[in-house]
Design a protein that fits this description.
38% helix; single chain; binds 3-isopropylmalic acid; two-stranded antiparallel sheet; 375 residues; ten-stranded mixed β-sheet; alpha/beta; binds magnesium ion
């Protein structure tokens, strides 16, 4: 029987409680689809600092290195973060470090607005068309997040100068562009909208040139370029025009949150952060190492109250089965189970609308149970 090793890093805030539900669903999938999952938990974020003095304890990193994939919760606590130096805070010291350490340059964020949740979309019905279905492909290890220099200098008189550097090389743009075009070729609408700021930024000009060149290898995919400001507007005016949105790191961070709101709730948005084998046709795509995490944060205000929506974490686990373990059938079964649980009227607070008939407000655990039993 196939065995896969998972490093489960639940982290802070709502991380542990949504992770529990994802594990519950994975256990059902494991029995039903005939593979074995070794799930090993390890602390990260503030949980890591409290347990071992570091946001990414050495033992946690070592576990990740010998695992087939990382299932990640969320890290960072706004109340505690400012109490330690910025380089040691969970976002930078754990999450960004893992992304860089494992070369996870390709971040996939699929946004889908299920028909049953049309009410949870902030846009008027007529703007939702036949439903919203967007895949944000975000470059994850370059751009302003990692560019050097990155520093704050004292320039005297009580003033400071903060510098972040936006930098991209041709190969970095090429490899993420290949990912976007390949995703567009799958069961999608074969359109890539590449986002840049080519009217102002050097990075934007290079981005546009390189993406255009890569696009020539994919004649069946329509390529369109759009300035990022316009893209932010088009997302709310006519979201149905988008299929795959190809973004550099920072633009993708921003636009994926905006897109998530269109999909009903940030609590519904899963993500896959994939490493180098993806985009290389000679490698087995299904075995790509990846980190899978919900795109929303730690939500400390609702943590530990059985209020969080576990769907983003559960769908992230499904993406893991698909991209890292090649278990497409099980992944689709989990996606369908999520759809069924929603159709059956289960709603966590973020997607609950008192005017909707035949629905009930449920907690994190109850939503997890509903999905697990529908797998
Ligand atoms: C995301 C998050 C992270 C990011 C934070 C937590 C560092 O917002 O994954 O979108 O900015 O990449
Ligand atoms: Mg973000």
């Amino acid at each position: 029987m196939k065995t896969f090793n998972i490093a489960a890093l639940a982290g802070d805030g709502i991380g542990p409680e949504v992770m529990r539900e994802a594990a519950k669903v994975l256990r059902v999938a494991e029995k039903k689809f005939g593979f074995t999952l070794n799930i090993t938990e390890a602390p990260v974020g503030w949980a890591g600092i409290d347990a071992a003095g570091k946001a990414l304890p050495d033992a946690t990193l070592a576990l990740c290195k010998k695992s087939d994939a990382i299932l990640f919760g969320s890290v960072g606590l706004p109340d505690r973060d400012p109490t330690i130096p910025k380089e040691e805070r969970p976002e930078r010291a754990a999450l960004l470090r893992i992304r860089k350490e494992f070369g996870l340059f390709a971040n996939l964020r699929p946004v889908k607005l299920p028909k049953a949740l049309a009410h949870a979309c902030p846009l008027a019905k007529e703007r939702q068309g036949d439903g919203i279905d967007i895949l944000v492909v975000r470059e994850l290890t370059g751009g302003m997040y990692f560019g050097q220099p990155k520093k704050t200098e004292d320039i005297g008189g009580g003033n400071f100068r903060a510098t972040d550097t936006m930098v991209y090389t041709t190969p970095e743009i090429e490899r993420i562009a290949h990912v976007a075009f390949k995703e567009a070729q799958k069961i999608r609408r074969k359109k890539v909208t590449s986002i840049d700021k080519a009217n102002v930024l050097e990075n934007g000009i290079l981005w546009r040139e390189v993406v255009t060149r890569v696009g020539k290898n994919y004649p069946d995919v329509t390529l369109e370029h759009m300035f990022v400001d316009n893209a932010a507007m088009q997302l709310v005016l006519r979201p149905t025009q988008f299929d795959v949105m190809l973004c550099e790191n920072m633009f993708g961070d921003i636009l994926s949150d905006e897109a998530a709101a269109l999909g009903g709730s940030l609590g519904m948005l899963p993500s896959a952060s994939l490493g180098a084998t993806i985009g290389d046709p000679s490698m087995d795509f299904e075995k790509t190492f990846g980190l899978y995490e919900p795109a929303g944060g730690t939500a400390p205000d609702i943590a530990g109250k059985n209020l969080a929506n576990p769907i983003a974490q559960i769908l992230s686990a499904a993406m893991m089965l698909q991209h890292s373990f090649g278990q497409t059938v099980a992944a689709i079964a989990i996606e369908n189970a999520v759809a069924k649980a929603i159709e059956a009227g289960n709603r966590t607070g973020d997607i609950f609308n008192p005017n909707e008939s035949n629905t009930r407000k449920v907690g994190t655990r109850e939503m997890g149970d509903a999905i697990a039993s529908a797998v």
